[in-house]
């Protein structure tokens, strides 16, 4: 008999369990006890009034269960707690970071999932999780900005289709700007209720004929003026050099991207969600600017110090900086490989000394090394 079937068929026998009984079951590793535990927890959930705060013991049960339970049990917990306003927030946050079929219900509906947790989901999880966040009803302006700062095309397209999200004028302008290169954004933006007449004229410049007609009918804009805008934009584009990403921000678009990365890092820092793992994620997504900004913020290093470490003839300074911010030493080699792909081989071919040291010692050694190099 499966765990789920057994739990359902024994529901009545679990209703008399006390909170302490459930705590004892949570500490047990016996499969039968875990089955009894889940049923007892579900029974308490069903009998609790929505506004009744959960006892601390019950919160401990939930967290223990989520950490140890099998996939199907976690999925059922997520579905049951998706709209509950009395569940332990720590459990909701944990479920939101789980596999997507477990995370989806709480990401879509939980009132306990706050902006900081949603931003953490954006940074630490899969593309499917990010899309679920972008589709969340009544998404706040802060999370909208975090999605735009990450600038993932699929996630932004999901956001543009979210009519209840708090997308202000500035955020709409950013979406319209992104639609210049992301064709999938154009249709949902053309139909978005917050699209203003000014942004409609801008959007018109790079949409197809069908959407031009839709925009023209919706705003009653003179098609001749729009066509003139298209011709002007085309002429301007023909005079504009092709942009290519450069590590040091040598043109306006690159500087704008670096500013977006800085805002994302600031939001993560303010939400208490800035962690060393973002360095690995930034490199895997080929976002050099995010790596640079995050390393500086995590370690309290100046931009000049971070750039000096990356442009060094050896990997020693970068190794110390990464160790100082808590990056696992075991993954530094892979970090270095990914970084060199983005920087034409920087830092140089010289290696590093994997000396055992804590983060404070590494930070001190890094700053001393930077001070010495600045005086040379």
- Distance N terminus to C terminus? 73 Å
One letter per element, helices H and strands E, the order comes to: HHHHHHHHHHHHHHHHHHHHHHHH
Number of strands: 0
- The average pLDDT is 79
Q: What structural class do the secondary elements suggest?
A: mainly alpha
Shape: flat
Low-confidence stretches: 1-15, 236-249
Oligomeric description of these chains: single chain
Roughly how much helix do the residues carry, as a percent range? 55-70%
The helix count comes to 24
Share of β-strand residues: under 5%
Question: What do these coordinates show?
Answer:
The protein is an all-alpha fold and 376 residues long. Helices cover 66% and strands 0% of the residues. It has helices at residues 3-9, 11-14, 19-27, 31-47, 56-68, 71-81, 89-96, 100-109, 115-124, 127-134, 141-150, 153-160, 169-178, 186-190, 197-204, 209-219, 223-239, 252-270, 277-284, 288-299, 303-310, 316-324, 332-342, 359-375. Helix 8 (100-109) runs parallel beside helix 10 (127-134), helix 15 runs antiparallel to helix 16 (209-219) and helix 20 crosses helix 21. The longest helix has 19 residues, at 252-270. It is flat, with a radius of gyration of 26 Å.
Short description:
By secondary structure, the chain is mainly α. The protein contains 24 helices and no strands.
Task: Please specify the SSE layout and strand pairing.
Blueprint: H1 3-9, H2 11-14, H3 19-27, H4 31-47, H5 56-68, H6 71-81, H7 89-96, H8 100-109, H9 115-124, H10 127-134, H11 141-150, H12 153-160, H13 169-178, H14 186-190, H15 197-204, H16 209-219, H17 223-239, H18 252-270, H19 277-284, H20 288-299, H21 303-310, H22 316-324, H23 332-342, H24 359-375
Helix pairs in contact: 1-4, 3-4, 3-5, 4-5, 5-7, 6-8, 8-10, 9-10, 9-11, 10-12, 11-18, 15-16, 18-20, 19-20, 19-23, 20-21, 21-22, 22-24
């Amino acid at each position: 008999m499966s765990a789920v079937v057994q739990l359902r068929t024994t529901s009545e026998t679990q209703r008399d369990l006390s909170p302490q009984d459930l705590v004892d079951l949570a500490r047990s590793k016996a499969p039968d006890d875990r089955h009894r535990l889940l049923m007892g927890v579900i029974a308490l959930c069903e009998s609790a009034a929505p506004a009744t705060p959960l006892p601390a013991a019950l919160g401990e049960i939930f967290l223990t269960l989520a950490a140890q339970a099998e996939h199907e049990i976690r999925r059922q917990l997520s579905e049951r707690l998706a709209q509950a306003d009395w569940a332990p927030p720590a459990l909701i946050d944990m479920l939101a970071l789980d596999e997507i079929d477990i995370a989806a219900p709480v990401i879509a509906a939980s009132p306990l999932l706050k902006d900081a947790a949603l931003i953490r989901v954006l940074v630490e999880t899969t593309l499917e999780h990010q899309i679920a966040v972008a589709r969340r009803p009544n998404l706040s302006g802060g999370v909208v900005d975090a999605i735009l700062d990450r600038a993932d095309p699929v996630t932004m397209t999901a956001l543009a289709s979210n009519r209840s999200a708090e997308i202000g004028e500035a955020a709409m302008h950013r979406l319209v700007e992104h639609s210049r290169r992301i064709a999938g954004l154009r249709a949902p933006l053309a139909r978005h209720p917050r699209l203003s007449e000014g942004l409609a004229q801008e959007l018109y410049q790079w949409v197809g004929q069908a959407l031009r007609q839709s925009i023209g009918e919706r705003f009653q804009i003179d098609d001749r003026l729009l066509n003139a805008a298209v011709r002007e934009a085309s002429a301007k584009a023909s005079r504009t050099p092709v942009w290519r990403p450069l590590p040091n921000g040598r043109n306006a678009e690159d500087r704008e991207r670096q500013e977006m990365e800085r805002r994302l890092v600031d939001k993560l820092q303010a939400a208490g969600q800035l962690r060393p793992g973002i360095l690995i994620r930034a490199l895997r997504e080929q976002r050099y600017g995010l790596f640079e900004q995050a390393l500086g913020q995590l370690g309290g290093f100046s931009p000049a110090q971070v750039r000096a470490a990356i442009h060094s003839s050896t990997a020693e300074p970068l190794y110390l900086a990464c160790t100082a911010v808590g990056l696992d030493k075991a993954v530094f080699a892979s970090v270095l490989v990914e970084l060199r792909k983005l920087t034409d081989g920087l830092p140089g071919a010289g290696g590093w000394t994997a000396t055992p040291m804590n983060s404070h010692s590494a930070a001190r050694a890094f700053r001393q090394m930077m001070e010495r190099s600045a005086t040379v």
